[in-house]
Amino acid sequence: MSTQEAEPFISCDRADESSVYQKRRSGVVSDASIPSSPEVVRAKKIIIPDISISDDDSDLFSDAGEDVPDHKISNTDTIIHLLKGNIGPGILALPDAIKNSGLVVGNIGLVVMATICVHSMHMLVNTSQELCRRTNLPFLTYSDVAETCFATSSSSRLRAFASTARTVIDVFLCITQLGFCCVYFVFISQNLQQIFDHYYGEINYHIYMAIILIPMLFLVSIRNLKYLSPVSMLANILQFIGLGIIFFYVFQDLPCTWERKAFASIGQLPLFFGTAIYAFEGIGVVLPLENQMKTSADMKGWNGVLNTSMIIVSCLYIAVGFFGYLKYGDTVTGSITLNLPVNEFLATLVKIMMSLAVFFTYALQFYVPVDLLNPFIQRRISPQNYLKAEYALRFSLVLLTFALAAAIPKLDLFISLVGAVASSTLALMAP
Fold first, then answer.
1. What are phi and psi of 332, to 5 degrees?
2. Which pairs count as long-range contacts for 388-391, CB under 8 Å and 24+ apart, including other chains?
3. pLDDT tens-place string over residues 401-415
4. How far apart are CA 308 and CA 286, in angstroms?
């Protein structure tokens, strides 16, 4: 589930939920309920993020206004979802990242970057829980956290930038997710090209991309995330099986470590950073999962859910990056699947499986920008045109990602670009 999905309504140091429900509808709370800090009390009201009630949210209240039991997830479930949310196509590009940094420098860099990213995730969770306590809101999304941080500040100058903070986070969320979708187009096309070129001769790369476009348009026509759940599960199964087979190939006939360079060059380090930060793409799923946990306090702590999950993820990243580069050296490509033999059935099967997994994941990543942009469009059209406008938005965004992928068909450079421009902002700077 490498996506940021709609967040269920769940308590976070919750007060009476009936009053919370009314506050969420109005979006206005007095100073008594939203102190900027324990010692600061202001005379005027503060506008806090308007977290609109969706159909899923309203289902949690009965006609009498009482709670209907919601489906929370255990710590084990949360760890599984965090693993799936962090393990995507980016992990297959980590050997290329190590190529751009060197075997020693690259792996030390991955450890440092993992530490910083996990620290940023902790800051985001801590801030969300503190703002939930101050505002008596049950949960906050990433952009809600950004806006509420400014809206509840003791500085009047910072409070003026509350809506701007939300907009900035929403913009980078859209850029990041659409960047992922562009990478997915390139990834699938290059893997299919390698398979079919071996059996049927060379065909232009853009033809494969055009073939993918048609089923992609059908896939993004699914408007409800509920119907994408089986697709997500299938993608996860294919991805984990594929990783197992990749390790089978990588561990065969490994050369000695001194045959690989310990450090590449300073000029290549930005490419390493872009690719590595792209791989740490899971910060967007941290708050949704924390909001769904039975015991959200277990997310934190030195042996909490977040640290446990990210240590496993980091070890897997380092293993793929280290052994992938050790195996293929400077010939490693933007995806390690492209280094596997083209004339072996098992290697071909891996490429097909990973391509299908990425194809199915496209719709899940695509849900986020549509969910952010659709309300903006609907405010400017009549209700009878809502459905037409949404499909027009969906198809336009698919064509946009298709055009960008066709214009930059270099998988390694595209991953570094997305990581450096968008992923770094959400994973590092914004928290």
1. -65, 145
2. 390/223, 391/221
3. 999 999 887 888 888
4. 13
